[in-house]
Each structure stands twice: as structure tokens, then as C-alpha cells.
Amino acid sequence: MNYRDIRTFGAVGDGMTKDTAAIQAAIDDCAQAGGGTVYIPPGKYVTGTLRLQDHITLWLEAGAVLQASTNREDYDFAEVYSTCKYPVVYPGLLYGSNLKNVTITGTGCIDGQDLAFWATKDTIGEGWNSTPSRYDPLEWRPMLILLEACSNIRISGIELCNSPVYSGWIIDCDRVNLQGLNILNHFYGPNSDGFHFSSCRYVHITSCHFRTGDDSIAIDSNGCQSSCHFTISDCTFDTSVNAFRIYTGLDPWIKEASYSSISDISISNCSVFNAAGVLNVTAEHGQIERISVSNMTVRMEQEGTAIFLMSNYGTIRHVHLNHWLVHSNGACTVIGLPDDCIEEVSLTHIQFEIAPKKKLYGLEIPEPIPSYAHHHFAPYGIYLRNVQTIRMDQVSLVWQDGEYDGSWSAISCKRIKRLQIRGFTGRQAGNGDQAPAIAMVDVESASVSNCTALPGTTVFLRTSGSEAGEVQLFDNDLREAREVSSI
Known about the structure:
Elements: E1 3-5, E2 14-18, H1 20-32, E3 36-40, E4 43-47, E5 50-51, E6 56-60, E7 64-68, E8 77-80, E9 88-97, E10 100-106, E11 109-111, E12 118-120, E13 135-137, E14 143-148, E15 151-156, E16 159-161, E17 168-171, E18 174-179, E19 182-184, E20 195-198, E21 201-206, E22 209-212, E23 217-220, E24 227-233, E25 236-239, E26 242-248, E27 261-274, E28 277-284, E29 287-299, E30 307-312, E31 315-328, E32 332-335, E33 341-354, E34 382-399, E35 411-422, E36 425-426, E37 438-449, E38 452-453, E39 459-464, E40 470-474, E41 483-486
Parallel strand pairs: 1-3, 2-4, 3-6, 4-7, 5-9, 6-10, 7-11, 9-14, 10-15, 11-16, 14-17, 15-18, 16-19, 17-20, 18-21, 19-22, 20-23, 21-24, 22-25, 23-26, 24-27, 25-27, 26-28, 27-29, 28-30, 29-31, 30-32, 31-33, 32-34, 33-34, 34-35, 34-36, 35-37, 36-38, 37-39, 37-40, 39-41
Antiparallel strand pairs: 8-9, 12-13
InterPro entries: GH28_Enzymes, Glyco_hydro_28, Pectin_lyas_fold, Pectin_lyase_fold/virulence, RHGA/B-epi-like_pectate_lyase
Keywords: Glycosidase, Hydrolase
Organism: Cohnella phaseoli
């Protein structure tokens, strides 16, 4: 077996000496021999960019720390998205392009020294109307892992901590496996994300823990191919923003609208300790379809909403969410523009416990939404607007004591073509009669069945609007409602 100990090549590991050249020499020598293992023994190794090679395993022993240099001259600034329309330049601590069979593993640590790349903000806004970052980024900052156009990538076992920006940015890569990672970034850092996957295929993520100051796992299709076929399971999350963000468009370097697509994402058996959002899906001039998210336990203290689906001149279809337990201050928002296509969305066996906090759009979100980042301020209840087809089955919503009093609907629907609500249990917030449990405005076709009105319900269902169509009510237990329906 080809094996290279970086100390043999002159690495010191005292936390002061620059060990970049020695570690790179070990990687290059191992690659020239056809590949093998580069061993990083216990110690603190200060390094700039390390260029990975084909068929290399980078093994970080317990007690080994790769520590990011804070000097700009120690980094290679790589052009990523280099074959796409809008390339950008970024440094990476571990960098690779057009590689195959690369493994980063062990039980050691990669430390990004985040605070060296940030400045403390002079003022910090309140959570109800601002995003949570408490720092501003300086002129440049490195990704911990930056890979483009690679295949057969495995990252396992190690700790990735204190990243000044994404822990990992994986672009146009196929067959990527993350397993057993411990990602510990600053909860209030600027863009201190976990992993971003741009136009990747055949990705598997399992048994990882994420503490992040932005999205823990982000999937986009802004590279040179579609994003598809992800499995994510058995992970835990503590994030100030989203556990999962799935999107087309939106990135600031994209200068004009272009079509891209994401499909076939399966997420299961995950637990969220804290977040501003669990599933955030945004289709901007693109198509997102075939997403399944099941068996989730969620607690959210940040202002936000557990489920947020939004199209902006895009398409979202076949999104199926089932078996969730949610404690948060926002349940579910699904919104699009009037001519967008949002169809075949289902929420099944989901229990929402909502403790309202003051936030910018607790009752009604503007149309169009002023900014993607305003998902933090989405309504308290289940809010649907400009949707073709959506189904709820065995969904409950219980209001708990919170920081904000008022009266509003548990489910608010506007301009929906086909709506099916089966087995809903809930009531409106507050005791006033101005808000029904379920409000429908211009819903063209709806059925409400096997539902239960909780004690304190005033009006269970209210319909209105010039485009309102027939609503079928059957097999409901509405004995606790003062009034069943009104127009």
C-alpha cells in the first residue's frame, strides 16, 4: 500500500510553522506513485491551499488539525463554474478539479479560523425583521473544501469547524458520499454554511451533525448540469437559517434568468434542534420536482417557518412531505406568481405546534415577496397562494402561548385551483370571529372531509372571492365550531 506520512516530507505541526509545502509534497509524491494514503498525524498544521490529486486518501488521525492560514498569499484563487456562463473566483483550503477517487477521512479536524475573516457588525437587527448574522465578511475568505467536476468523492468521520464561509462547496460532481461528519460553524456567522452542492448528481449524506450560521445543506443547479438523485438521512441540525435549501437561480453572480432543474431528492429520519426553516425550496426561472421528506422531528426557536416553497417564474411539482412533528413559530408557506406552476404538493401526517413570535409577515406575505431572504418572516399558519393542486391529509395545528397575540386562520388559501383537506384538526388563533379556522379566497375546487374543529373554534370555514367555486364538506366533526361555514 502506498502510504505517505507528512512529517517525512518536513511537516512540523506546531501551530505556527507553515506546513503547506510539506503536505503538498506528500500528496504529489503519493499521486505520482499511482495513489494511496497521505497520513496526517496528531498536531496542528497551518496550511494554505492544498491541491488534491486522483486516487488519494487524506487521512487525519485523531488529534490532527489542519488549520487555515489567515494570509491571502497562501491560497490559490480558483476559477469555479469555469465552463459555465458566469464563472467566479474563490479560494479553497482543500481544492480539486477534474479528479476521481478522492477520500478525506479519519477522526481529525479541519479548522477554518472563522473570526480572522470577519468583522463584528456595529449594529444587529432584531430577529423579527432581520437575518441573524452578527458579523460582516472581510474582502476574502476560503472554503474549507472546494471541489469541481470530480467523481467518486468520499468525506467521512472528520470534524469541520469554524469555517469562514461554506464548509464545503461541491460543483458539477458525481457520486459524492458524506458520512459521519461533525460540522461545527459559528451559529451567527455570515454564510457559515455546511455543504453546498451545485449541479451534482448521485449524492448520499448520512449520519452527519450540522451546526451552521446559514444553510446546513444547500442544493442548486447553477452549474453546468442538472442536480438530481440525492439521499439524505439520519442527520441532526442546529442552524440559524435553513436545514435544507433547494433552489434554482438566486445566486448573486447570475446576471440574467436561465432555466435549470433539480429532481429526485429523498430526505428522511432527520432531527432539527433549531432553525429558521427546515425545508426551503425556491424555483427561480427553473424547475424543481420529485422531493420526498419524511420522518422529521423539528424544534425551531428562530423566527421563520418550517416549510417554505416559492416559485418565481418557475415550476415546483411532486413535493411530498409526511410524518413530521414540528414545534415552531411558523408552519408552512407555499406561494408562487399567478402564472407559475406549483402542483402535486402533499402534506401528510404532520403535527404543527405553533408558538407565535413577532415577525414582519406573521399574517400575510406581500405579493410579490420583496426578497428571497424574507422567508424568515413568513406567516404563522399554513399559508397557500397561487397553487394548482395541493393536498393535506391528517395535518393538525395547535396554537401555543407565544410572544404575539391576535386572531388569524390556521389555514389560509388564495387562488388555488384544486385543494383537498382531509383529516385536519385545528382552530383559528385567538378568540375573535374575524378569522375562521380555514379561509379560502378564490379557491376554484375544494373538498374538506374527516376534519375536527377544536374547542374555541368560531367559524370553521369561510369562502370568498369572485373565482370561488364549489367546496364539498363531508364527514367532519364540527361540534365545537360556533358556525360551520360562512360566505
